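debug: dumping io for the single-chain case to check the tokenizer round-trip. Nothing else runs in this session.
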Amino acid sequence: MTMAEAQRRRLADFEGAWELTREIRHDAGAQAVFAGEAIWIPDEAGLLYRETGTLTVPGGAPMQAERRYLWRAGLRVYFEDGRFFHQVPATGGTAEHWCDPDAYTVCYDFSDWPAFSTVWRVEGPRKRYEMSSRYRRHSRNRA
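debug: decoded output
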């Protein structure tokens, strides 16, 4: 196996539980933080991604938050209703999603694998923010 092949992420690489921390920084200055867990669970067609945790917005009470996606062969990610979202670059890098009128651009960084990070930049007429997430293997997954 070449070094490039060894650094390519595959769907099975994500299976299991991960600790997840996230910062959301709006261009207007507001900032929120999320702390929780992401888990990739096998299903009949690939993996079901589910994240759960607590979202804290300045001046507001902490609230429970959850989101789900479907991860499929080729690291293709779909919304829970089956609509295509984006494709994760197997060696890291950028991907895009257009949700009229907003543009979403993500950068995956796998250089610290098995920890990794994503940075989403969202721009639209009423949205302008950056969302940085850090994933690391949950302690219960480590040998």
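debug: round-trip ok. The chain has one domain: 3-141.
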